[in-house]
Structures are given as structure tokens and as C-alpha cells.
Amino acid sequence: xxxxxxxxxxxxxxxxxxxVASHKLMIRAGLIRKESAxxxxxxxxxxxxxxxxxxxxxxxxxxAGAVEFLMPELTNADLWKESGRWNTMGPEMIRIKxxxxxxxxxxxxxxxxxTALVRNIVSSYRDLPxxxxxxxxxxxxxxxxxxxxxxxxxxxxKDAYSFDLDEEGLEKSYQAMRMAYRNIFRRMGLETIPxxxxxxxxxxxxxxEFMVPSTIGEEVLLLCNSCGYRANQEKADFKRTFPAxxxxxxxxxxxxxxxxxxxxxxTFFNCNASKFLKxxxxxxxxxxxxxxxxxxxxxxxHKLKRALGAAELELAGDRIVEEVTxxxxxxxxxxxxxxxxxIFDLSIRHISNGITGANxxxxxxxxxxxxxxxxxxEEADIALAVDGDKCPTCGAPMNTAKGIEVGHIFKLGYxxxxxxNLTVLDKNGRAVHPLMGCYGIGVNRTMATIIEQHxxxxxxxxxxxxxxxxxxxVGIGKTDEEIKMTDxxxxxxxxxxxxxxxxxxPLSPGFKFGDADLIGCPIRLTIGKxxxxxxxxxxxxxxxxxxxxxxxxxxxxxxxxxxxxxxxxYAAK
Length: 573
Ligand code: ATP
Ligand code: MG
Hints:
Elements: H1 21-28, E1 32-36, E2 39-42, H2 44-63, E3 67-68, E4 74-76, H3 77-83, E5 94-97, E6 103-106, H4 111-121, E7 130-139, E8 154-164, H5 167-187, E9 193-196, E10 206-213, E11 219-223, E12 230-232, E13 252-255, H6 262-269, E14 277-284, E15 287-294, H7 301-308, E16 313-315, H8 318-325, E17 341-345, E18 354-360, E19 363-368, E20 378-380, E21 399-413, H9 415-419, E22 424-425, E23 431-432, E24 435-442, H10 443-453, E25 455-456, E26 459-460, E27 471-475, H11 480-495, E28 500-503, H12 509-519, E29 523-527, H13 529-534, E30 536-541, E31 547-551, H14 552-569
Parallel strand pairs: 3-7, 15-17, 17-20, 27-28, 27-29
Antiparallel strand pairs: 1-2, 4-6, 5-6, 7-8, 8-24, 9-10, 10-21, 11-12, 11-21, 13-19, 14-15, 14-16, 18-19, 21-24, 22-23, 25-26, 29-30, 30-31
Bound molecules: adenosine-5'-triphosphate and magnesium ion.
């Protein structure tokens, strides 16, 4: 490829709306351009890297026994109604109508579509196991699209759906994907950590997210260095330590004018936050519920949602809080509150002589003890695990890290095969529902994450496996003779099928070197004075900055050698 014939609009300045390195670099290096909020076009150079990523995914999926399909992007509303998700998917799903008023969704995911297709093409236990995948666009009307292609409204996902006869088969399919994912990401230069993830309220028994540790990550991970427990904060358990019981004191009403928050209460009562029974009103599927937790902890809304069995959960507004507690916000508590469903965190039972709102304006209770002053009917772990909390498996203190989620594997169980009535005949001729799993990789997000992990102040440093070109050849000859000599080297590389871009633009060497560093292909060749005068081609490695000289006779051999060495670094294990 000759750069003079290639659209490569590189930029010197960071785009003003880009907050993270990968987003800035993808725009500056001419890989993508913004179309509108959360939507990006790929330019030829960006598309080359994207295709290399897709190719690695495809190779590893095929090697793991999965087979490739391609589904429509428009998915019929009837399918979503069958599974019950037409009403539960919420505003992230983009719904449209055709000229005949038939309803569709622009697929945010394809569980329904694949279940319906497989229902059509599979009939016997002999047809299973099946792992069907595609590499296709997804649409999600994200509330906050950000970080360029890391969270966009339209993105490419590799999604796979496994169908197995029994638990053992599902476990095998799941583990095969787990292995494939590690290999896929490793081959792209990403070290991932699989962490336990929330399976939500929609069924499913086991789920892991593949995280790349990064300060820009939107996910918080809890990691135990001692035993290797790893979980998304949304899911993370932790071992509790409870205070010793104290002799119960009398329950008393105390006037607390305008003292509402935990901080204000701590100052007012001059005691530890763990003494308070923090009571928060939520709306669970539209109905008010109270969640009560020790004042030194935060509620994990994912755990709460699961404990309540709710599909939707949101904090109640002031008006509802006032209606439910008969008091202004800040004075809610579990005593004399029989009106609404109340769920207690595991911490509450262990608070002796606690303090809580009295459901009256400017009044709190002291000397609060569960059992005597209120009954714990529903109890669950609804607490958010934080840095320093004890590992649920070994008890060692855990630490937190931020991560970018690049992939997700999930045991769905019978959810879709039952709701959409997918069956196969087993050995005895009985119709049985297969167990399903689903497995996603965000292709564009993966590309941005690679850049996030592999760059310096000058630009991208592509791992060779996903670099748009292996070799970036800069010609700085000026005379016809020099240009001819440079063209000859390019022709030689091209004929030898070396993946090379030739910067033949009539621009200054400084400018061309700047672009070469910004774009970050692993091997830079310079055909300059040392070659025209002394016959030596300069080879520079983008990552290490290492410089080598080589004569034309040894060039192909040398380049092939470097390519091989660099690939070996990113080999699957
Ligand atoms: P997130 O929590 O980041 O919203 P998710 O749980 O909605 O992700 P999945 O439904 O599991 O994501 O989708 C599989 C993969 O698709 C994710 O692991 C991620 O890599 C990618 N992905 C999800 N949403 C987006 C998006 N808006 N833009 C780009 N990639 C995305
Ligand atoms: Mg999402």
C-alpha cells in the first residue's frame, strides 16, 4: 500500500471531546471519525486493525468448536414477546416500526434470535452440543455513550450461544469458551482477569466478565491476592466481622432537629457510623420498599435487586419517602414501619443499642435492638464490598482495582429454551429443553483497550498481531534516482507478501516519522541517506526504540525474523 493513495487524516492536536488516551489516539491516528454521539466510522487504517482482531476471534472460536452464523439486525418484536423481554429490556433497546406498523428491535443482543433459529434447525440430541456464534453489529441506546468506541450506541460484538443436553455439557461449553477467551485476548496483547459477575434476576447460574485492569475502567473489581478470589463489585461477597453484643438499653426518642445524614448523626451523637441503622426507600418494580443497613456500609443495588426479585430498582423520590414514612427525608427507620416491605442487611441483627430514624420529623430513636424493637423478617446480604473487606473464601483482606470489561461469559440455563420452547428429542425419544450459555466480546471496545494498554506519549504501539501493518516504510529520498531506489525496496517487500505500508508522500522526514510513531506499526524502515550513500536500511522497532541497520540482501530475512519473534510474544498458551 502506498500512503500517497491512502486517506490518512492524522491530527496533531487531541480532539476536544476525547477524555481517554485510546479515544484521542484513535482519532489522531486516523483510525476512526465520529459520526455523531456514540457512533463512529472506521477509516481504512482502523478497519485493518479491526479485521485483524476479528480474525483472531474467529480463529479461536473455530478452534474451540464453535460455528459461525450471521443474524439479521432487525429482530421481530414477536421473538422478544415470546421470551418476555419486550417489556423488560427498557429504553436501551431501540424499537422501530415498518410501513405496515410491524414492530422490531435493532438487536441489542441475539439470545431470542438464535434460540428461534436453533429451534428450527435442531431436532435431536445428536445435533447437540452446538455453539453458534456471529460477529455482528449491536445497537444499544446507552444513557451515557463515552470514551469513543469503548461505550458507543452501535458496536460490533462477537456473540456466541451454546446449546447442551445437560449440566455437564454446559459446563464443558462454558469452560471451552473461558479458555478461548483467554487465548483470544492474550493473542492481542491483553492480559485479562476473569471475575465473578452478577447473574441478575433473569435467571442464569454462573457468569464471569473478562476484565483488563485499567485506571479508566468503569468496573470496580475486588481481588484477593491470597487465594485468587476475584469478583465484580456488583457481585462481590465478603466475610463479615460483627461487634460483640451489649446489654440492651431502653429505647428512647431523641430530638434531632435537622440532623439527617450519617455524617450529621455521627457528629450529633458522637459515635461510630456502624451504630446507625441506615434506612433507604427504593421503588422495586414501582412498589416502595425499605432497605436497612449499618451506617458504615453502602447498599449494593445489584444484590438488593436480586434479594427482592425485582426487575427494576430505583431510589424513591422525596415525595414517596414522605408518603411512606410520614416524615421528611432523613428520618426513616424500621421501627413502627409495618406499611412497606423491609429488607435487612446481615449487619443489622448485630447492632446493639443502635440509632435510627423514628419516622417522625426531627426525631431519632436510640437504644435500638432488633428482635425487641422490630422484627427481622427478610434478611439478606445487600452490602457493597469495599477495599480492605475480607475475602469470602479465605478471609484475607481484598483490594480493589478498576477494569474494562472486554468480554462476558454466562450460563443462561433454561431461561430461553423454556420460555421460547426450544426442545430436542433425547435418546428415549422424549422432548427435552437444552441448557444454554452465552458468550460476548466487544470487538471495538477490545480495540480501544489494546490501545489503552499499548501506547506512549508519541502514539500507539500496536502488538504485531493486531497492527494495521507489520512494516511502516518511510521513504525520505528526494531525487528521481532516490525515489526509484526506494520504490524498488517497496516492490521487493510487496512481492514477498510482507504486510507493508509505504509512506511515499512528498512531506518532510520529521512529519513522516511523527505519523509513523503516532500510528505505531511495530517495524519502521527508513530508506534515507544511509541507504542512498552507504547501502544501509534503518530498522527501528516501535516498542523498544531499538535501531538496526541492514543491507538490502538480508532485509527480507531480517524482517521475517523480527515478525516471527514479535508474534511469539503474543502466542496462545
Ligand atoms: P457494560 O456493563 O459495559 O454495559 P454489558 O454487561 O452491557 O457491558 P454484555 O451485554 O455482556 O455487556 O455485552 C458483551 C460485551 O459487549 C461486553 O463485555 C463489552 O465488551 C461489549 N459492550 C457492551 N456494551 C457496549 C457498548 N455500549 N459499546 C461497546 N462495547 C460494548
Ligand atoms: Mg451495558
